[in-house]
Amino acid sequence: MSRGELVLHFQPIVELRSRRPVAAEALLRWRRAGDLAAPGAFWANTDTACAQEIGQFVLDSACQRLAGWRAEGLCPEMSVNVDPRELTRSWLASVYDALDRYQLPPSTLNVELTETSQIDPVVGADVAAALIRRGVGVALDDAGTGFNALAAVSDLPLTELKIDRSFVSRLGDPRADALVRGLVAISQELGMRSVAEGVETEQQAQILEGYGVQRAQGYLFSRPVAAPEFADYWRQAHGDDVGAVELIREMAAIGASPATTAAILNRRGTPGPNGRSWRAGSVSRVLLAQPVAPCGRRRA
Fold first, then answer.
1. pLDDT tens digits for range 282-295
2. Who's near 1: CB < 8 A, 6+ residues apart?
3. In whole angstroms, what is the distance from residue 191 CA to residue 176 CA?
4. Distance CA 135, CA 168 (A)
5. How are the residues of the chain apportioned to helix, strand and coil, as percentages rounded to the nearest 5?
6. pTM (predicted TM-score)
7. Which among 153, 199, 200, 287 has most CB atoms closer than 10 A?
8. Which residues lie across from 28 on neighbouring strands?
9. Fold (CATH) for 6-236
10. Boundaries of every domain in the chain
Protein backbone atom coordinates (compact mmCIF):
# COMPACT_ATOMS: atom_id res chain seq x y z
CA MET A 1 0.00 0.00 0.00
CA SER A 2 2.83 2.39 0.77
CA ARG A 3 3.95 2.16 -2.87
CA GLY A 4 0.56 3.33 -4.10
CA GLU A 5 0.01 0.16 -6.14
CA LEU A 6 -3.52 -0.49 -4.86
CA VAL A 7 -6.26 1.34 -6.75
CA LEU A 8 -10.02 1.19 -7.06
CA HIS A 9 -11.94 0.59 -10.24
CA PHE A 10 -15.70 0.97 -10.43
CA GLN A 11 -18.35 -1.11 -12.16
CA PRO A 12 -21.78 0.40 -12.83
CA ILE A 13 -24.85 -1.25 -11.34
CA VAL A 14 -27.87 -0.62 -13.55
CA GLU A 15 -31.60 -0.70 -13.03
CA LEU A 16 -32.80 -3.41 -15.41
CA ARG A 17 -36.09 -1.69 -16.18
CA SER A 18 -34.42 1.46 -17.53
CA ARG A 19 -30.94 0.06 -18.35
CA ARG A 20 -29.48 3.15 -16.66
CA PRO A 21 -26.79 3.09 -13.95
CA VAL A 22 -27.98 3.72 -10.40
CA ALA A 23 -24.91 2.82 -8.33
CA ALA A 24 -21.29 1.67 -8.45
CA GLU A 25 -19.36 -1.22 -6.98
CA ALA A 26 -15.83 -0.38 -5.84
CA LEU A 27 -13.41 -3.13 -6.87
CA LEU A 28 -9.82 -3.40 -5.66
CA ARG A 29 -7.02 -3.74 -8.18
CA TRP A 30 -3.25 -4.22 -7.75
CA ARG A 31 -1.34 -2.14 -10.27
CA ARG A 32 2.06 -3.68 -10.82
CA ALA A 33 4.46 -3.57 -13.76
CA GLY A 34 1.79 -2.05 -15.96
CA ASP A 35 -0.79 -4.76 -15.23
CA LEU A 36 -3.91 -4.75 -13.07
CA ALA A 37 -4.58 -7.80 -10.90
CA ALA A 38 -7.92 -8.57 -9.28
CA PRO A 39 -7.93 -9.65 -5.60
CA GLY A 40 -8.25 -13.30 -6.57
CA ALA A 41 -4.62 -13.19 -7.67
CA PHE A 42 -3.25 -12.17 -4.27
CA TRP A 43 -5.94 -12.00 -1.58
CA ALA A 44 -5.52 -15.56 -0.29
CA ASN A 45 -1.96 -14.72 0.78
CA THR A 46 -2.90 -11.73 2.93
CA ASP A 47 -2.91 -12.12 6.70
CA THR A 48 -5.65 -10.70 8.92
CA ALA A 49 -3.86 -7.44 9.74
CA CYS A 50 -3.11 -6.80 6.07
CA ALA A 51 -6.69 -7.64 5.02
CA GLN A 52 -8.05 -5.21 7.59
CA GLU A 53 -5.65 -2.45 6.50
CA ILE A 54 -6.53 -2.93 2.84
CA GLY A 55 -10.22 -3.07 3.69
CA GLN A 56 -9.96 0.26 5.46
CA PHE A 57 -8.24 1.74 2.40
CA VAL A 58 -11.05 0.48 0.16
CA LEU A 59 -13.78 1.81 2.45
CA ASP A 60 -12.21 5.24 2.85
CA SER A 61 -11.30 5.61 -0.83
CA ALA A 62 -14.75 4.51 -1.97
CA CYS A 63 -16.51 6.93 0.38
CA GLN A 64 -14.24 9.78 -0.67
CA ARG A 65 -14.92 9.08 -4.34
CA LEU A 66 -18.66 8.79 -3.73
CA ALA A 67 -18.73 12.14 -1.94
CA GLY A 68 -16.95 13.75 -4.89
CA TRP A 69 -19.34 12.25 -7.42
CA ARG A 70 -22.40 13.25 -5.43
CA ALA A 71 -21.09 16.82 -5.28
CA GLU A 72 -21.05 16.74 -9.10
CA GLY A 73 -24.56 15.29 -9.30
CA LEU A 74 -23.26 11.91 -10.40
CA CYS A 75 -23.35 8.45 -8.79
CA PRO A 76 -25.57 8.39 -5.64
CA GLU A 77 -24.67 4.95 -4.19
CA MET A 78 -21.56 2.85 -3.64
CA SER A 79 -21.09 -0.84 -2.83
CA VAL A 80 -17.93 -2.15 -1.14
CA ASN A 81 -16.87 -5.73 -0.49
CA VAL A 82 -15.99 -6.78 3.04
CA ASP A 83 -13.78 -9.68 4.05
CA PRO A 84 -15.02 -11.71 7.05
CA ARG A 85 -11.80 -10.81 8.89
CA GLU A 86 -12.90 -7.17 8.88
CA LEU A 87 -16.20 -7.80 10.65
CA THR A 88 -15.45 -6.41 14.09
CA ARG A 89 -17.03 -3.71 16.18
CA SER A 90 -14.00 -1.48 15.60
CA TRP A 91 -14.56 -1.86 11.84
CA LEU A 92 -18.17 -0.86 12.40
CA ALA A 93 -16.98 2.35 14.03
CA SER A 94 -14.73 3.02 11.02
CA VAL A 95 -17.75 2.75 8.70
CA TYR A 96 -19.64 5.35 10.72
CA ASP A 97 -16.54 7.55 10.82
CA ALA A 98 -16.12 7.43 7.03
CA LEU A 99 -19.78 8.33 6.49
CA ASP A 100 -19.50 11.26 8.89
CA ARG A 101 -16.15 12.44 7.52
CA TYR A 102 -17.41 12.59 3.95
CA GLN A 103 -20.92 13.76 4.93
CA LEU A 104 -22.61 10.79 3.28
CA PRO A 105 -26.12 9.63 4.20
CA PRO A 106 -25.87 5.99 5.41
CA SER A 107 -28.29 4.88 2.68
CA THR A 108 -25.66 5.75 0.05
CA LEU A 109 -23.38 2.91 1.19
CA ASN A 110 -23.94 -0.81 0.56
CA VAL A 111 -21.72 -3.40 2.25
CA GLU A 112 -21.30 -6.71 0.41
CA LEU A 113 -20.50 -9.73 2.58
CA THR A 114 -18.24 -12.26 0.87
CA GLU A 115 -16.91 -15.68 1.93
CA THR A 116 -19.93 -16.17 4.19
CA SER A 117 -18.72 -19.62 5.29
CA GLN A 118 -15.99 -17.84 7.28
CA ILE A 119 -18.28 -15.34 9.01
CA ASP A 120 -18.93 -15.91 12.70
CA PRO A 121 -22.76 -16.07 12.71
CA VAL A 122 -23.14 -14.18 15.99
CA VAL A 123 -20.66 -11.40 15.19
CA GLY A 124 -21.87 -11.21 11.58
CA ALA A 125 -25.49 -10.90 12.62
CA ASP A 126 -24.67 -8.21 15.21
CA VAL A 127 -22.62 -6.14 12.76
CA ALA A 128 -25.13 -6.50 9.92
CA ALA A 129 -28.03 -5.55 12.19
CA ALA A 130 -26.14 -2.49 13.45
CA LEU A 131 -25.41 -1.35 9.89
CA ILE A 132 -29.03 -1.76 8.84
CA ARG A 133 -30.27 0.14 11.90
CA ARG A 134 -27.98 3.00 10.88
CA GLY A 135 -29.37 2.87 7.32
CA VAL A 136 -26.45 1.17 5.55
CA GLY A 137 -27.37 -1.57 3.07
CA VAL A 138 -26.06 -5.11 3.62
CA ALA A 139 -25.82 -7.50 0.67
CA LEU A 140 -25.07 -11.21 0.43
CA ASP A 141 -22.59 -11.59 -2.42
CA ASP A 142 -22.61 -14.69 -4.67
CA ALA A 143 -26.01 -15.80 -3.37
CA GLY A 144 -26.85 -19.41 -4.09
CA THR A 145 -23.28 -20.70 -4.39
CA GLY A 146 -23.21 -23.27 -1.59
CA PHE A 147 -25.10 -24.34 1.49
CA ASN A 148 -23.28 -21.87 3.74
CA ALA A 149 -24.30 -18.94 1.54
CA LEU A 150 -27.93 -20.07 1.63
CA ALA A 151 -27.76 -20.49 5.40
CA ALA A 152 -26.53 -16.91 5.65
CA VAL A 153 -29.85 -15.73 4.20
CA SER A 154 -31.59 -16.99 7.33
CA ASP A 155 -28.79 -16.17 9.80
CA LEU A 156 -27.87 -12.62 8.73
CA PRO A 157 -30.00 -9.48 8.46
CA LEU A 158 -29.77 -8.48 4.79
CA THR A 159 -31.17 -5.86 2.43
CA GLU A 160 -29.90 -7.28 -0.88
CA LEU A 161 -29.18 -10.59 -2.60
CA LYS A 162 -26.57 -10.70 -5.37
CA ILE A 163 -27.19 -13.59 -7.75
CA ASP A 164 -23.91 -15.22 -8.69
CA ARG A 165 -22.59 -15.03 -12.25
CA SER A 166 -22.42 -18.83 -12.44
CA PHE A 167 -26.23 -18.93 -12.58
CA VAL A 168 -26.49 -15.98 -14.97
CA SER A 169 -24.08 -17.59 -17.45
CA ARG A 170 -26.30 -20.71 -17.56
CA LEU A 171 -29.63 -18.96 -18.08
CA GLY A 172 -31.70 -21.01 -20.50
CA ASP A 173 -30.85 -24.19 -18.63
CA PRO A 174 -33.98 -25.24 -16.68
CA ARG A 175 -32.09 -25.86 -13.43
CA ALA A 176 -30.29 -22.51 -13.53
CA ASP A 177 -33.52 -20.71 -14.39
CA ALA A 178 -35.33 -22.40 -11.51
CA LEU A 179 -32.59 -21.43 -9.07
CA VAL A 180 -32.64 -17.80 -10.20
CA ARG A 181 -36.43 -17.64 -9.91
CA GLY A 182 -36.11 -19.17 -6.44
CA LEU A 183 -33.55 -16.60 -5.31
CA VAL A 184 -35.73 -13.78 -6.62
CA ALA A 185 -38.71 -15.23 -4.76
CA ILE A 186 -36.67 -15.42 -1.55
CA SER A 187 -35.54 -11.81 -1.94
CA GLN A 188 -39.10 -10.65 -2.52
CA GLU A 189 -40.50 -12.62 0.44
CA LEU A 190 -37.82 -11.23 2.76
CA GLY A 191 -38.06 -7.66 1.46
CA MET A 192 -34.62 -7.64 -0.15
CA ARG A 193 -33.44 -6.15 -3.43
CA SER A 194 -32.13 -8.57 -6.08
CA VAL A 195 -29.02 -7.88 -8.18
CA ALA A 196 -27.58 -10.14 -10.88
CA GLU A 197 -23.82 -10.29 -11.47
CA GLY A 198 -21.95 -11.17 -14.65
CA VAL A 199 -24.59 -10.11 -17.16
CA GLU A 200 -22.96 -10.24 -20.58
CA THR A 201 -25.80 -10.42 -23.13
CA GLU A 202 -29.05 -8.59 -23.75
CA GLN A 203 -30.86 -11.93 -23.73
CA GLN A 204 -29.65 -12.56 -20.17
CA ALA A 205 -30.78 -9.10 -19.13
CA GLN A 206 -34.24 -9.65 -20.60
CA ILE A 207 -34.65 -13.03 -18.88
CA LEU A 208 -33.54 -11.61 -15.53
CA GLU A 209 -35.88 -8.65 -15.86
CA GLY A 210 -38.71 -11.04 -16.67
CA TYR A 211 -37.94 -13.02 -13.50
CA GLY A 212 -38.20 -9.85 -11.42
CA VAL A 213 -34.51 -9.09 -10.85
CA GLN A 214 -34.24 -5.37 -10.13
CA ARG A 215 -30.60 -4.53 -10.79
CA ALA A 216 -27.67 -5.99 -12.68
CA GLN A 217 -24.02 -5.50 -13.48
CA GLY A 218 -21.67 -7.03 -16.00
CA TYR A 219 -19.83 -6.53 -19.26
CA LEU A 220 -23.08 -5.92 -21.15
CA PHE A 221 -23.16 -2.54 -19.45
CA SER A 222 -19.52 -1.86 -18.57
CA ARG A 223 -16.35 -3.48 -17.34
CA PRO A 224 -14.87 -2.14 -14.10
CA VAL A 225 -13.14 1.12 -15.06
CA ALA A 226 -11.09 3.86 -13.43
CA ALA A 227 -12.93 6.78 -11.83
CA PRO A 228 -12.67 9.22 -14.78
CA GLU A 229 -14.05 6.64 -17.24
CA PHE A 230 -16.86 5.78 -14.82
CA ALA A 231 -17.83 9.45 -14.55
CA ASP A 232 -17.88 9.72 -18.35
CA TYR A 233 -20.07 6.61 -18.59
CA TRP A 234 -22.47 8.06 -16.01
CA ARG A 235 -22.71 11.43 -17.75
CA GLN A 236 -23.42 9.76 -21.08
CA ALA A 237 -26.16 7.59 -19.54
CA HIS A 238 -27.65 10.40 -17.46
CA GLY A 239 -26.97 13.47 -19.58
CA ASP A 240 -30.34 15.09 -18.92
CA ASP A 241 -30.25 14.17 -15.23
CA VAL A 242 -26.80 15.68 -14.65
CA GLY A 243 -27.88 18.90 -16.36
CA ALA A 244 -31.01 18.98 -14.21
CA VAL A 245 -29.00 18.66 -10.99
CA GLU A 246 -26.70 21.49 -12.04
CA LEU A 247 -29.67 23.76 -12.80
CA ILE A 248 -31.40 22.85 -9.52
CA ARG A 249 -28.28 23.74 -7.56
CA GLU A 250 -27.86 27.03 -9.44
CA MET A 251 -31.49 28.01 -8.85
CA ALA A 252 -31.26 27.11 -5.15
CA ALA A 253 -28.15 29.25 -4.81
CA ILE A 254 -30.09 32.33 -5.93
CA GLY A 255 -33.04 31.54 -3.69
CA ALA A 256 -35.51 30.21 -6.26
CA SER A 257 -38.30 28.04 -4.88
CA PRO A 258 -38.51 24.35 -5.82
CA ALA A 259 -41.79 25.05 -7.64
CA THR A 260 -40.14 27.71 -9.81
CA THR A 261 -37.23 25.41 -10.62
CA ALA A 262 -39.63 22.57 -11.48
CA ALA A 263 -41.52 24.83 -13.88
CA ILE A 264 -38.28 25.82 -15.65
CA LEU A 265 -37.17 22.20 -15.99
CA ASN A 266 -40.54 21.23 -17.45
CA ARG A 267 -40.48 24.14 -19.92
CA ARG A 268 -37.06 22.96 -21.08
CA GLY A 269 -38.43 19.47 -21.63
CA THR A 270 -35.98 17.90 -19.15
CA PRO A 271 -37.27 14.47 -18.09
CA GLY A 272 -38.03 14.19 -14.39
CA PRO A 273 -37.48 11.19 -12.11
CA ASN A 274 -38.73 7.96 -13.72
CA GLY A 275 -39.63 9.92 -16.85
CA ARG A 276 -42.32 11.98 -15.13
CA SER A 277 -42.68 15.77 -15.03
CA TRP A 278 -40.74 17.70 -12.43
CA ARG A 279 -42.59 18.77 -9.27
CA ALA A 280 -41.57 20.85 -6.29
CA GLY A 281 -41.20 17.69 -4.21
CA SER A 282 -38.85 16.00 -6.66
CA VAL A 283 -36.71 19.15 -6.83
CA SER A 284 -36.59 19.25 -3.03
CA ARG A 285 -35.43 15.63 -2.90
CA VAL A 286 -32.56 16.45 -5.25
CA LEU A 287 -31.57 19.33 -2.98
CA LEU A 288 -31.58 17.05 0.06
CA ALA A 289 -29.02 14.87 -1.70
CA GLN A 290 -27.10 17.83 -3.16
CA PRO A 291 -27.38 20.67 -0.60
CA VAL A 292 -26.22 24.10 -1.72
CA ALA A 293 -25.55 27.06 0.52
CA PRO A 294 -26.41 30.66 -0.46
CA CYS A 295 -24.29 32.25 -3.22
CA GLY A 296 -23.43 28.82 -4.56
CA ARG A 297 -21.23 27.70 -1.61
CA ARG A 298 -21.70 24.07 -0.71
CA ARG A 299 -22.47 23.46 2.93
CA ALA A 300 -19.51 22.37 5.01
1. 888 888 766 554 44
2. 53, 54, 57
3. 22
4. 29
5. 55, 20, 30
6. 0.79
7. 199
8. 8
9. TIM Barrel (3.20.20)
10. 6-236, 239-296
